[in-house]
Amino acid sequence: MKAAVVYKKGEMPKYAEFETPVSNNENEILISVKAVAITNLDKGKASGKHYSTENEYKNGFVVGSDGVGFLDDGTRVYARGISGTIAEKAIVEKNRMVLLPDGISTSIAASMPNAVAGSAMALRFRAGIKPGETVLINGATGFTGQIAIQIAKHYGAKRIIVTGRNEKTLQSLLELGADEIVCLKQDDEIIVNQLKAIHENASIDIIIDYLWGHSAELIFASIKGNGSFTHKVRYVSVGSMAGDSIQLSAGILRSVDLQLSGSGLGSWTKEEVKLLFSEILPEMFLLAAQGKLKINIQEVNLADIEKMWDTKVPDGKRLVVTI
Fold this sequence. Notes:
Strand content: 25-35%
Low-confidence stretches: none
Number of strands: 15
Number of helices: 10
Distance between the termini: 11 Å
Shape: elongated
Mean pLDDT: 94
CATH topology of the largest domain: Rossmann fold
Helix content: 25-40%
Number of domains: 2
CATH class of the largest domain: Alpha Beta
Protein backbone atom coordinates (compact mmCIF):
# COMPACT_ATOMS: atom_id res chain seq x y z
CA MET A 1 0.00 0.00 0.00
CA LYS A 2 1.05 3.65 -0.41
CA ALA A 3 1.68 5.55 2.81
CA ALA A 4 3.46 8.48 4.48
CA VAL A 5 6.45 6.80 6.09
CA VAL A 6 9.03 8.16 8.52
CA TYR A 7 12.22 6.10 8.40
CA LYS A 8 14.08 8.12 11.01
CA LYS A 9 12.56 10.35 13.68
CA GLY A 10 12.99 13.98 12.79
CA GLU A 11 12.95 13.39 9.05
CA MET A 12 10.19 14.32 6.62
CA PRO A 13 7.59 11.60 5.89
CA LYS A 14 8.18 9.92 2.53
CA TYR A 15 5.54 8.85 0.03
CA ALA A 16 6.43 5.19 -0.16
CA GLU A 17 5.27 1.60 -0.42
CA PHE A 18 4.66 0.01 2.97
CA GLU A 19 3.38 -3.36 4.12
CA THR A 20 -0.38 -3.49 4.70
CA PRO A 21 -1.05 -3.94 8.44
CA VAL A 22 -2.88 -6.97 9.80
CA SER A 23 -5.34 -7.02 12.70
CA ASN A 24 -4.24 -9.05 15.73
CA ASN A 25 -7.47 -9.45 17.71
CA GLU A 26 -11.24 -9.10 17.53
CA ASN A 27 -11.18 -5.45 18.64
CA GLU A 28 -9.11 -4.45 15.61
CA ILE A 29 -10.41 -3.92 12.09
CA LEU A 30 -8.90 -2.86 8.77
CA ILE A 31 -10.35 0.20 7.04
CA SER A 32 -9.74 1.85 3.68
CA VAL A 33 -8.57 5.33 4.66
CA LYS A 34 -9.84 8.33 2.68
CA ALA A 35 -8.85 11.40 4.71
CA VAL A 36 -6.49 12.22 7.59
CA ALA A 37 -5.76 15.56 9.23
CA ILE A 38 -2.14 16.57 9.86
CA THR A 39 -2.04 17.74 13.47
CA ASN A 40 0.62 19.06 15.82
CA LEU A 41 0.33 15.74 17.65
CA ASP A 42 1.28 13.83 14.50
CA LYS A 43 4.16 16.19 13.77
CA GLY A 44 5.40 15.83 17.33
CA LYS A 45 5.29 12.05 17.12
CA ALA A 46 7.04 12.04 13.75
CA SER A 47 9.83 14.20 15.15
CA GLY A 48 10.09 12.07 18.30
CA LYS A 49 9.53 15.15 20.47
CA HIS A 50 6.01 14.45 21.72
CA TYR A 51 5.83 13.06 25.26
CA SER A 52 3.83 10.05 24.05
CA THR A 53 6.62 8.94 21.69
CA GLU A 54 8.67 6.03 22.98
CA ASN A 55 9.48 3.37 20.41
CA GLU A 56 12.04 3.29 17.63
CA TYR A 57 11.06 1.54 14.41
CA LYS A 58 13.88 -0.07 12.44
CA ASN A 59 11.94 -0.29 9.19
CA GLY A 60 10.12 3.02 9.53
CA PHE A 61 6.59 3.79 10.65
CA VAL A 62 3.47 5.26 9.07
CA VAL A 63 2.45 8.63 10.52
CA GLY A 64 -1.09 9.60 11.45
CA SER A 65 -3.12 8.95 14.60
CA ASP A 66 -6.66 8.78 13.26
CA GLY A 67 -8.69 9.22 10.11
CA VAL A 68 -11.89 8.71 8.15
CA GLY A 69 -12.43 5.72 5.93
CA PHE A 70 -14.70 2.88 4.90
CA LEU A 71 -15.30 -0.56 6.34
CA ASP A 72 -15.62 -3.54 3.99
CA ASP A 73 -19.42 -3.13 3.95
CA GLY A 74 -19.15 0.52 2.82
CA THR A 75 -19.88 2.09 6.21
CA ARG A 76 -18.09 5.43 6.59
CA VAL A 77 -16.42 5.92 9.97
CA TYR A 78 -14.02 8.06 11.91
CA ALA A 79 -11.59 5.97 13.96
CA ARG A 80 -8.42 6.07 16.04
CA GLY A 81 -5.58 4.19 14.46
CA ILE A 82 -3.60 1.35 15.94
CA SER A 83 -1.33 1.47 12.92
CA GLY A 84 -0.44 4.76 11.22
CA THR A 85 -3.37 6.24 9.32
CA ILE A 86 -1.86 8.36 6.54
CA ALA A 87 -1.98 5.33 4.29
CA GLU A 88 -4.34 3.50 1.98
CA LYS A 89 -5.13 0.99 4.75
CA ALA A 90 -5.00 1.17 8.53
CA ILE A 91 -5.88 -0.95 11.55
CA VAL A 92 -8.24 0.85 13.91
CA GLU A 93 -9.92 0.13 17.24
CA LYS A 94 -13.56 -0.95 17.02
CA ASN A 95 -14.37 0.68 20.36
CA ARG A 96 -12.87 4.00 19.23
CA MET A 97 -14.85 4.28 16.03
CA VAL A 98 -17.71 6.68 15.23
CA LEU A 99 -20.27 6.32 12.44
CA LEU A 100 -20.49 9.53 10.42
CA PRO A 101 -23.81 11.24 9.65
CA ASP A 102 -24.95 12.14 6.15
CA GLY A 103 -24.21 15.71 5.17
CA ILE A 104 -20.62 15.95 6.43
CA SER A 105 -17.76 15.66 3.97
CA THR A 106 -15.06 13.06 4.56
CA SER A 107 -12.34 15.71 4.77
CA ILE A 108 -14.29 17.93 7.18
CA ALA A 109 -14.94 14.93 9.43
CA ALA A 110 -11.24 14.02 9.40
CA SER A 111 -10.24 17.55 10.38
CA MET A 112 -12.40 17.78 13.50
CA PRO A 113 -11.61 15.12 16.15
CA ASN A 114 -8.19 16.35 17.29
CA ALA A 115 -9.56 19.87 17.71
CA VAL A 116 -12.75 18.66 19.38
CA ALA A 117 -10.71 16.61 21.84
CA GLY A 118 -8.42 19.60 22.39
CA SER A 119 -11.33 21.85 23.27
CA ALA A 120 -14.41 19.93 24.39
CA MET A 121 -12.46 17.68 26.77
CA ALA A 122 -10.88 20.70 28.43
CA LEU A 123 -14.12 22.66 28.63
CA ARG A 124 -16.34 19.81 29.76
CA PHE A 125 -14.14 17.67 31.99
CA ARG A 126 -11.26 19.84 33.26
CA ALA A 127 -13.05 23.18 33.47
CA GLY A 128 -16.57 21.84 34.05
CA ILE A 129 -18.11 24.63 31.99
CA LYS A 130 -21.58 25.85 33.00
CA PRO A 131 -24.02 27.97 30.99
CA GLY A 132 -23.51 31.69 31.50
CA GLU A 133 -19.78 31.57 32.25
CA THR A 134 -16.99 33.69 30.77
CA VAL A 135 -14.23 31.89 28.89
CA LEU A 136 -10.81 33.17 27.85
CA ILE A 137 -9.13 31.24 25.02
CA ASN A 138 -5.40 31.92 24.79
CA GLY A 139 -4.19 31.28 21.24
CA ALA A 140 -7.57 31.18 19.54
CA THR A 141 -6.43 31.98 16.00
CA GLY A 142 -5.38 28.39 15.28
CA PHE A 143 -7.73 25.67 14.05
CA THR A 144 -8.36 24.20 17.51
CA GLY A 145 -8.87 27.63 19.01
CA GLN A 146 -11.52 28.41 16.42
CA ILE A 147 -13.29 25.17 17.20
CA ALA A 148 -13.02 25.94 20.93
CA ILE A 149 -14.85 29.25 20.48
CA GLN A 150 -17.77 27.52 18.79
CA ILE A 151 -17.92 24.64 21.27
CA ALA A 152 -17.73 27.01 24.25
CA LYS A 153 -20.65 28.94 22.77
CA HIS A 154 -22.52 25.66 22.18
CA TYR A 155 -21.91 24.68 25.82
CA GLY A 156 -23.48 27.93 26.98
CA ALA A 157 -20.61 30.38 27.47
CA LYS A 158 -22.05 33.87 27.89
CA ARG A 159 -18.87 35.74 27.02
CA ILE A 160 -15.73 34.63 25.16
CA ILE A 161 -12.44 36.52 25.15
CA VAL A 162 -9.74 35.45 22.68
CA THR A 163 -6.04 36.18 22.30
CA GLY A 164 -3.61 35.77 19.42
CA ARG A 165 -0.96 37.48 17.34
CA ASN A 166 -2.57 37.46 13.90
CA GLU A 167 -4.66 40.63 13.97
CA LYS A 168 -6.61 39.81 10.79
CA THR A 169 -7.58 36.36 12.06
CA LEU A 170 -8.41 37.77 15.49
CA GLN A 171 -11.00 40.07 13.91
CA SER A 172 -12.56 37.13 12.08
CA LEU A 173 -13.08 35.32 15.40
CA LEU A 174 -15.83 37.78 16.25
CA GLU A 175 -17.89 36.11 13.52
CA LEU A 176 -17.40 32.72 15.22
CA GLY A 177 -18.77 33.90 18.55
CA ALA A 178 -15.89 35.71 20.28
CA ASP A 179 -16.95 38.86 22.14
CA GLU A 180 -13.61 40.56 22.76
CA ILE A 181 -10.10 40.21 21.35
CA VAL A 182 -6.68 40.81 22.92
CA CYS A 183 -3.74 41.13 20.53
CA LEU A 184 -0.55 39.57 21.89
CA LYS A 185 1.60 41.83 19.71
CA GLN A 186 1.08 44.67 22.17
CA ASP A 187 3.48 45.59 24.98
CA ASP A 188 3.26 43.34 28.04
CA GLU A 189 1.91 46.10 30.26
CA ILE A 190 -0.90 46.88 27.83
CA ILE A 191 -1.87 43.20 27.57
CA VAL A 192 -1.90 42.72 31.35
CA ASN A 193 -3.92 45.90 31.90
CA GLN A 194 -6.42 44.94 29.21
CA LEU A 195 -6.89 41.48 30.71
CA LYS A 196 -7.19 42.95 34.22
CA ALA A 197 -9.92 45.32 33.04
CA ILE A 198 -11.80 42.45 31.39
CA HIS A 199 -11.53 40.32 34.54
CA GLU A 200 -12.67 43.17 36.80
CA ASN A 201 -15.63 43.97 34.54
CA ALA A 202 -16.89 40.39 34.14
CA SER A 203 -14.89 37.80 36.04
CA ILE A 204 -13.21 35.19 33.88
CA ASP A 205 -14.36 31.73 34.92
CA ILE A 206 -12.34 29.52 32.55
CA ILE A 207 -9.04 29.91 30.72
CA ILE A 208 -8.24 27.45 27.92
CA ASP A 209 -4.59 27.86 26.94
CA TYR A 210 -3.09 26.64 23.66
CA LEU A 211 0.08 28.74 23.90
CA TRP A 212 1.57 28.60 27.43
CA GLY A 213 4.99 30.33 27.47
CA HIS A 214 5.18 34.08 28.06
CA SER A 215 1.52 34.70 27.23
CA ALA A 216 0.54 32.44 30.14
CA GLU A 217 2.77 34.45 32.46
CA LEU A 218 0.92 37.62 31.41
CA ILE A 219 -2.46 36.00 32.02
CA PHE A 220 -1.44 34.82 35.48
CA ALA A 221 -0.18 38.33 36.27
CA SER A 222 -3.55 39.76 35.19
CA ILE A 223 -5.57 37.60 37.60
CA LYS A 224 -3.25 37.97 40.60
CA GLY A 225 -5.15 38.91 43.75
CA ASN A 226 -4.42 41.63 46.31
CA GLY A 227 -5.35 39.84 49.52
CA SER A 228 -9.12 40.16 49.28
CA PHE A 229 -11.57 37.45 48.25
CA THR A 230 -11.19 36.39 44.60
CA HIS A 231 -13.32 34.80 41.93
CA LYS A 232 -12.41 31.17 41.19
CA VAL A 233 -10.61 30.70 37.88
CA ARG A 234 -10.20 27.29 36.23
CA TYR A 235 -7.06 27.39 34.08
CA VAL A 236 -6.55 24.49 31.65
CA SER A 237 -3.32 24.03 29.70
CA VAL A 238 -3.92 22.25 26.37
CA GLY A 239 -0.95 23.28 24.23
CA SER A 240 2.46 24.94 24.43
CA MET A 241 2.95 26.59 21.05
CA ALA A 242 4.66 29.57 22.71
CA GLY A 243 6.97 27.57 24.96
CA ASP A 244 6.95 24.55 27.24
CA SER A 245 8.02 26.30 30.46
CA ILE A 246 6.96 29.38 32.40
CA GLN A 247 7.91 31.23 35.56
CA LEU A 248 4.97 31.13 37.97
CA SER A 249 5.11 33.15 41.16
CA ALA A 250 4.02 31.36 44.31
CA GLY A 251 2.39 34.65 45.27
CA ILE A 252 -0.01 34.30 42.36
CA LEU A 253 -1.02 30.81 43.48
CA ARG A 254 -1.64 32.04 47.03
CA SER A 255 -3.47 35.22 46.05
CA VAL A 256 -6.20 33.82 43.81
CA ASP A 257 -8.68 30.94 43.95
CA LEU A 258 -7.04 29.08 41.06
CA GLN A 259 -7.60 25.60 39.69
CA LEU A 260 -4.70 24.72 37.40
CA SER A 261 -4.85 21.55 35.29
CA GLY A 262 -3.90 20.08 31.93
CA SER A 263 -5.92 18.38 29.24
CA GLY A 264 -4.27 15.89 26.91
CA LEU A 265 -3.21 12.31 26.35
CA GLY A 266 -2.60 10.72 29.74
CA SER A 267 -4.65 13.21 31.72
CA TRP A 268 -8.04 11.93 30.57
CA THR A 269 -9.71 9.06 32.36
CA LYS A 270 -10.97 5.94 30.58
CA GLU A 271 -14.54 7.08 31.19
CA GLU A 272 -13.84 10.51 29.70
CA VAL A 273 -12.31 8.97 26.57
CA LYS A 274 -15.30 6.64 26.29
CA LEU A 275 -17.62 9.67 26.38
CA LEU A 276 -15.50 11.40 23.73
CA PHE A 277 -16.34 8.62 21.28
CA SER A 278 -19.87 7.80 22.42
CA GLU A 279 -21.23 11.34 22.97
CA ILE A 280 -18.97 14.27 22.16
CA LEU A 281 -17.69 13.39 18.69
CA PRO A 282 -21.08 12.17 17.40
CA GLU A 283 -22.67 15.42 18.60
CA MET A 284 -19.99 17.59 16.96
CA PHE A 285 -20.10 15.64 13.68
CA LEU A 286 -23.86 16.19 13.60
CA LEU A 287 -23.49 19.92 14.29
CA ALA A 288 -21.03 20.17 11.40
CA ALA A 289 -23.35 18.19 9.13
CA GLN A 290 -26.13 20.67 10.01
CA GLY A 291 -23.88 23.62 9.16
CA LYS A 292 -23.70 24.81 12.77
CA LEU A 293 -19.90 24.63 13.00
CA LYS A 294 -17.63 26.56 10.69
CA ILE A 295 -14.67 24.38 9.66
CA ASN A 296 -11.75 25.68 7.58
CA ILE A 297 -9.55 23.13 5.82
CA GLN A 298 -7.02 22.80 3.01
CA GLU A 299 -6.74 19.49 1.20
CA VAL A 300 -3.59 17.82 -0.13
CA ASN A 301 -3.12 14.49 -1.89
CA LEU A 302 -1.15 11.71 -0.19
CA ALA A 303 1.33 11.69 -3.10
CA ASP A 304 2.31 15.29 -2.19
CA ILE A 305 2.96 14.58 1.50
CA GLU A 306 6.69 15.33 1.34
CA LYS A 307 6.35 18.87 0.04
CA MET A 308 3.24 19.67 2.11
CA TRP A 309 4.18 18.25 5.53
CA ASP A 310 5.69 21.47 6.88
CA THR A 311 3.45 23.85 4.95
CA LYS A 312 2.25 26.80 7.00
CA VAL A 313 -1.51 26.71 6.45
CA PRO A 314 -2.93 30.25 6.70
CA ASP A 315 -5.80 31.64 8.79
CA GLY A 316 -6.18 28.71 11.16
CA LYS A 317 -7.00 26.11 8.52
CA ARG A 318 -6.39 22.39 9.04
CA LEU A 319 -4.37 20.52 6.43
CA VAL A 320 -6.14 17.30 5.43
CA VAL A 321 -4.50 14.51 3.44
CA THR A 322 -6.86 12.84 0.98
CA ILE A 323 -6.22 9.29 -0.15
